[in-house]
Amino acid sequence: MKRFLYLNIILIFAFLLANTSAQNYNDALILSEPGFYTSARALSLGNSYTSMSNDFSGVLFNPAGIGLVKNVQLSGGMNFNAFSNSTTFFNSQTNSSKNAVSLNQFGIIYPIPTLQGSWVFAIGYNRVKDFNRTLEFDGFNNGNTSMIQDLTGEFNEQIPITNDLGLAYEIRDPNTDQYIRDTTLIDGLLNQSGRIRRKGNIGKWSFSSSVEVARGFFIGGTFNILSGSFKSDKDYWEDDTGDIYGAGLELVPGDPTTRDFQSFYLNDIIEWNLSGWDANLGVLYSWQNRFRFGASVKFPSYFTVKETYYVDATTDFGVSSGYALQPIVDKIEYGIRTPFEYALGASGTFSIVTLSGDIKIIDYTQMDFNKGFDSQYRIERKREIEDLFTTVVNLHAGAEFKFPQTPVLGRFGVMYLPSQFEGDPSEFDKKYLTAGVGVYLANMFKIDVAYAYGWWEDFGDNYGVNASRTLQDITVNNFIVNFIVNL
Fold it and tell me: pTM for the complete prediction?
């Protein structure tokens, strides 16, 4: 199995102890996967918005679409995100959830008076991605593996972590006293548990314009300034609940303080401060205001990541106060470049019904670390990305109904987002059902409400491959409320 849900803790230790980099494809994927909670109307239509885009969220879907706006338009919105999962770990199931509320949009669209056609500007902010995630697991691993064993080895020779924690010791040649290797008497049969909390977001300050260059044909562009943050806080425990390593065993022979092993605890925290930029271009053709066709391209986002690592670990023994690792803090700065995103869309209005559909093409093998490391390291990460990832085609569709004799519109949509990893089964593809309502008041004030329900499966390895694996059933619920004022 080639893919991992979250960064392997061993890689973090390898980075901090051996002075090598822990950044891998997961870091690039976190920033490259598109967010899609920008506006209520777009979300309720399954984000099939490339051929519509006639509100402020259009600066990101298809900036040409804002050329359809005829009046000054002010918009704002709130987003509620609820993430929950059911994690199976060694036949034990743990449920967890995490919620987040945020201001996700505010902006203004300003049409410039023209003799013919249209020329429109827009400026404002969209929160495009929410990192709200959680994971908890707890189960007994009856195999002969453990994090302790994985952290014991020759790569820790200069700073032997498990040795410092009273979990392992050196083996030396009895004749020359030359170091041979580190070893531990721990041989699995431990209860393993953990929790991971993620939070943060990415927002875009957008500067956009659209011009009607021919009747019904619009060209638009957007320049985005990116900012955001990300934090992952991970706790991991291994406990001798079966008293396998009791009072009669010294984990370090000759050291009585290492008798009666109780617990090993590891905490690592990763924090990012994010900045960067990207741009969008789009075209849209409106035929008799009934049929619309749109296409857009989002150019790669160039992120600068200022990252801080914090790692701590402790052990408890029944006969002593245990051992504690001197906390390790390290900082690094590097760059990530995300893939191009290409979108095609069409929509048609038939009496009181509007139907829309989009496809979005993303080649995830284009992800790259573009600065902050030596060329050899970047080449190795690029080969890794090209081996693991593939090109995906995301599908979006939606419908909008106008209730006769009322200012109310009903909407629903679907999204199908295939896994970015080469060879993944369909269980890992993200599926969404969406719905929403729009209400116009006196043609001046508009309220849009949207709800999205998503589900998929995922897995992660604490260490090794399928030695300590979590299997997740994930569900997400999102509510967005937008307010639009036409002046």
Answer: 0.90
